[in-house]
């Protein structure tokens, strides 16, 4: 799987989420990137049901069940700080059957959707991150198609991101640290989205640009 960087771009001063997304996509179009359809990544949070915990005041574990329109036949189940399981799409039906063990925190459903752009060997997805009815942030996913070893192409990725993200270009993703020279996988992308969604969930909704 090609190497991917997923990061958050802050809302521009005095602008809304939507206006900031438009500024970013305009920069991409000026570079010569072409629109190629849309994408969506979603994430539902499940927590261990109270009935499965002992009386020792254990805290429940969180599990995130995620989908990515790039992998329509897969479903990803991630544990905080834990493994990422890749299952087929029937996994969602299984989660319904496991409701005695895992309960869906429906209010926590979060997703990012937006437009895909192709530019030379790069695929860029600029998404609006929403929770419930409100736009909470902006995600930028950049994929370098020819390369499957993260360390081989990070500099190239960063150089390209700087061309339209400027000083919001991210540092190297933490998942790369554990990969070294091993092959990048779709699960690594989902871990990055999970981290981004958790960061956005924790951010206090401030007055700035959250309309």
Automatic annotation (TrEMBL):
Q: What is its main location?
A: nucleus
Per UniProt, subunit arrangement is:
Component of the Mediator complex.
Q: Mind listing the UniProt keywords for this protein, alphabetically?
A: Activator, Nucleus, Transcription, Transcription regulation
The molecular function terms in GO held by this entry are:
transcription coactivator activity
GO CC, sorted alphabetically, is: mediator complex
UniProt cross-references to Pfam families, sorted A to Z: Med20
Judging by the UniProt lineage, the source's domain of life is: Eukaryota
Q: Where is this gene product found?
A: Nucleus
Q: Which organism is it from?
A: Rostratula benghalensis (greater painted-snipe)
Record family assignment: Belongs to the Mediator complex subunit 20 family.
What InterPro entries does the record point to? Answer: Mediator_Med20
Q: What is this protein called?
A: Mediator of RNA polymerase II transcription subunit 20
Q: What does this protein do?
A: Component of the Mediator complex, a coactivator involved in the regulated transcription of nearly all RNA polymerase II-dependent genes. Mediator functions as a bridge to convey information from gene-specific regulatory proteins to the basal RNA polymerase II transcription machinery. Mediator is recruited to promoters by direct interactions with regulatory proteins and serves as a scaffold for the assembly of a functional preinitiation complex with RNA polymerase II and the general transcription factors.
User: What are its GO biological-process terms?
Assistant: regulation of transcription by RNA polymerase II
Q: Nuclease: present as a keyword of the record?
A: no
Q: Does the keyword Transcription regulation apply?
A: yes
């Amino acid at each position: 799987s090609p190497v991917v960087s997923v990061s958050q771009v802050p809302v521009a001063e005095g602008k809304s989420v939507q206006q900031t997304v438009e500024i970013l996509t305009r920069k991409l179009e000026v570079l010569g990137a072409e629109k190629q359809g849309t994408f969506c990544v979603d994430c539902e949070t499940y927590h261990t049901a109270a009935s499965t915990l002992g009386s020792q005041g254990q805290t429940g574990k969180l599990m995130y069940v995620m989908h990515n329109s790039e992998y329509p036949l897969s479903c990803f189940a991630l544990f905080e700080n834990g493994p990422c399981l890749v299952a087929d799409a029937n996994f969602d039906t299984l989660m319904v059957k496991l409701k005695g063990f895992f309960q869906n925190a429906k209010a926590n459903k979060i997703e990012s959707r937006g437009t895909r752009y192709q530019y030379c060997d790069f695929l860029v997805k600029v998404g609006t991150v929403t929770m419930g009815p409100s736009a909470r942030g902006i995600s930028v996913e950049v994929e370098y198609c020819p390369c499957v070893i993260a360390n081989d192409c990070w500099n190239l990725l960063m150089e390209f991101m700087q061309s339209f993200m400027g000083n919001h270009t991210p540092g190297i993703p933490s998942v790369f640290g554990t990969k070294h020279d091993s092959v990048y996988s779709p699960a690594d992308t989902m871990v990055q989205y999970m981290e981004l969604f958790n960061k956005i969930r924790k951010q206090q909704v401030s007055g700035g640009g959250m309309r």
